[in-house]
UniProtKB/TrEMBL annotation:
<dbReference type="GO" id="GO:0005829">
    <property type="term" value="C:cytosol"/>
</dbReference>
<protein>
    <recommendedName>
        <fullName>Methionine--tRNA ligase, cytoplasmic</fullName>
    </recommendedName>
</protein>
<dbReference type="InterPro" id="IPR014758">
    <property type="entry name" value="Met-tRNA_synth"/>
</dbReference>
<comment type="similarity">
    <text>Belongs to the class-I aminoacyl-tRNA synthetase family.</text>
</comment>
<keyword id="KW-0030">Aminoacyl-tRNA synthetase</keyword>
<keyword id="KW-0436">Ligase</keyword>
<dbReference type="GO" id="GO:0017101">
    <property type="term" value="C:aminoacyl-tRNA synthetase multienzyme complex"/>
</dbReference>
<dbReference type="GO" id="GO:0006431">
    <property type="term" value="P:methionyl-tRNA aminoacylation"/>
</dbReference>
<keyword id="KW-0648">Protein biosynthesis</keyword>
<dbReference type="InterPro" id="IPR001412">
    <property type="entry name" value="aa-tRNA-synth_I_CS"/>
</dbReference>
<dbReference type="InterPro" id="IPR033911">
    <property type="entry name" value="MetRS_core"/>
</dbReference>
<dbReference type="GO" id="GO:0005524">
    <property type="term" value="F:ATP binding"/>
</dbReference>
<dbReference type="InterPro" id="IPR029038">
    <property type="entry name" value="MetRS_Zn"/>
</dbReference>
<dbReference type="Pfam" id="PF09334">
    <property type="entry name" value="tRNA-synt_1g"/>
</dbReference>
<dbReference type="InterPro" id="IPR014729">
    <property type="entry name" value="Rossmann-like_a/b/a_fold"/>
</dbReference>
<keyword id="KW-0067">ATP-binding</keyword>
<dbReference type="InterPro" id="IPR023458">
    <property type="entry name" value="Met-tRNA_ligase_1"/>
</dbReference>
Amino acid sequence: IAAAVDIWAQGPAALPPPRQPRTPVLPVEGERNVLITSALPYVNNVPHLGNIIGCVLSADTFARYCRLRNWNTLFVCGTDEYGTATETRALEEGLSPQELCDRYHAVHAQVYSWFRISFDHFGRTTTPQQTRIAQDIFQRLLARGFLLQDTLEQLRCESCGRYLADRFVEGTCPFCGYAEARGDQCDKCGKLINAVELKSPQCKICRGVPVVTPTQHLFLDLPKLEGRLEAWLERTWAAGDWTANARHITRTWLRDGLKPRCITRDLTWGTPVPLDGFRDKVFYVWFDAPIGYLSITANYTDQWERWWKNPQQ
């Protein structure tokens, strides 16, 4: 405290000269290098104050602090653009998913610019880099035996000629009887729903009656990764960087045992699955979207791996 008071009394002249910004910002040997990512906002709406305060403003505050400390800092973010929510919103607005994403990406960029959020790069997930990196990670998982195939029963609308992802089907909630429940959850009782459990289901596009049809999907074999994940968690928990709440939630998942997680969807709007027998499917957005942090950095600099594969710095 005494040192802080002394520096404060000396005024701005006592401060070290500000770091001269480099383009692109890359890790520097022997310096403190800080990569900051703000949670990717979903693209199908106009951001409001809650969105900005919830993640973007916090990250911006920390980025400004790091730069004031003269730490070598890269701050990236971008819009999350794949998934069923984009497809349904595009249908409502009479646009293609790409047109909808282009419109709202521009709105997001304008809003954050108005708030002077200090991103070094604000990108998006619908890019060739996203496809290349996501498919590369998929191929590596496949080659190492961490993927498996299984059959799921899904609702299919024969009139539209497509399987109906959760947001493309509505019906009566099997738990509370609410007549306008979605295929993923009931907005009245709040319970999660498997779409095939809905009573009197209807296709949201044509209002036809879908039928239950089996379809093949790919799963991430999480039980095979459980042992090495637990060992890694024990090491990182010991370092003390996790909050108590994060540790508790993660322990709960491990206590109940990890289950295989489906990573594909019967949609057209998404990153294509590069495997014969699955080329009419795309990656589930929760497999694809986190890779957006990497691909957005890769769109900022072709030396992105110096940030993402560089634990020593």
